[in-house]
Amino acid sequence: MNKLELISQIQQKKSFLCIGLDVDLAKIPTHLLSESDPIFEFNKQIIDATHHLAVAYKPNTAFYEAYGIKGWVALEKTINYINEKYPEIFTIADAKRGDIGNTSTMYAKAFFEDLNFDSVTVAPYMGSDSVEPFLAFNNKHTILLALTSNKGGLDFQGLKTDNSELYKEVLKTALTWKNSENLMFVVGATKAEYFKDIRQIVPNHFLLVPGVGAQGGNLQDVCKYGLNNNCGLLINSSRGIIYAGNDKGFALKAKDEAFKLQQEMEQILHKKSQG
Amino acid sequence: MNKLELISQIQQKKSFLCIGLDVDLAKIPTHLLSESDPIFEFNKQIIDATHHLAVAYKPNTAFYEAYGIKGWVALEKTINYINEKYPEIFTIADAKRGDIGNTSTMYAKAFFEDLNFDSVTVAPYMGSDSVEPFLAFNNKHTILLALTSNKGGLDFQGLKTDNSELYKEVLKTALTWKNSENLMFVVGATKAEYFKDIRQIVPNHFLLVPGVGAQGGNLQDVCKYGLNNNCGLLINSSRGIIYAGNDKGFALKAKDEAFKLQQEMEQILHKKSQG
């Protein structure tokens, strides 16, 4: 999917919501556990109930790897289901991969070609040749970790270098890489005040923002500084949506929560368009 | 496996060789391609031929993910084969994972419990709470990326912060984390001169050193500064060993290459013990 298609979808749905499919068998409704593939069945119902409110789905691969082969089968079925039934949806493999050049190419092929995700999250620590193999794929998007919303996020990302904090150096340096137009960036929502500085460095790129909801970030604060003329934001919510209910009506409850966020987003987009 | 068992194995085998099981179907002998599981068959023969010369095996997960479900099955069979037939061998999942707390716990369970690896490589960018969930496992080892041997390695790792280069800050900070005695560090071999500084910060921890051989690092140079009284090094070679041959005798050729490295290591250990 190219960026224009993503932008067009945001405009049509009046939403920039990404739903995190972080499926934990200990948290899903117990009646699903008797299904042959409870993880996929859970995802399928969540997707069917929310696809008109969300523009992106983001399975975090850790939750699938934790169930071994069965988990990978469920991940494959989930991405295939989205691509077949809702091909307009932008898909993100939240894998946070990164390795030396030829090995990064293997990861890129796994997520972009075999699984046919539109994008994958990548860690910057190993530098240019660990990320550029991902950037080489046409109409695929590499979402680089910049500033993360977890407690230890600033341990290294916040270190002041000769020029500026490490996460700003990551943003600036990444812009110099080959095919940097295929980049997006992960920026944690618990630090809304940082978005102002970040938008000065990357005014046009999409930012994937986890941490709204359960992790404590505030949507209005993020949008105040993070929105650009193409929206430029994908706001992720995982637990707040997918675990809103815990009985046979769980998918409807998820839809209700997604609807609340979509409505808030519609207002924000409307206000922005009014100028 | 605890650290004493690893040290004891190094002393018995007079080797600190780690063999990287980075299996690429385009590079393995073609007669294996008709096997039902060519990746596992390749690994099995390499392992059977080299287990007495190596103290560790390190499959890089990218090479397995690239083949989807089949790849994960091959990885699972490989680690089970090592654990059953050669339980004295130290196993490393070269996965370079890292995510926020509860998600890192999922990865840790996947590699330490389900697959029963002795260790996993982890990226530091997300800080303390992305690594500590791995460190919480008893007799399991978390091998943190510090300085990597790829071209872009210094893009960020070499950035000078207020105190010192980023990779040194990673080493120093990691030592303050809970259960830091379960840490090892990845340090690239192409930068042997860095080992002197690194050993001042982490004199006692094991260092996993990729980049000897195909990537251009020199074993003698690394050992000069990197060895400590418990050896403290695991030197990895992947392509130089596993692709030494490309016909039915490939495993013997791999053994020959592993033997050469083991012999060199035996001399180095002998010299060190003399004084």
From TrEMBL, chains A, B:
One of its GO terms (molecular function) is orotidine-5'-phosphate decarboxylase activity. Residues 16-254 form the Orotidine 5'-phosphate decarboxylase domain. InterPro entries: Aldolase_TIM (IPR013785), OMPdecase_type-2 (IPR011995), OMPdeCOase_dom (IPR001754), RibuloseP-bd_barrel (IPR011060). The keyword Lyase applies. Its EC number is 4.1.1.23. The gene is pyrF. Belongs to the OMP decarboxylase family. Type 2 subfamily. Keywords: Decarboxylase, Lyase, Pyrimidine biosynthesis. Signal peptide: none annotated. It catalyses: orotidine 5'-phosphate + H(+) = UMP + CO2. The keyword Iron-sulfur does not apply. This is Orotidine-5'-phosphate decarboxylase. It comes from Lutibacter aestuarii. Pathway: Pyrimidine metabolism; UMP biosynthesis via de novo pathway; UMP from orotate: step 2/2.
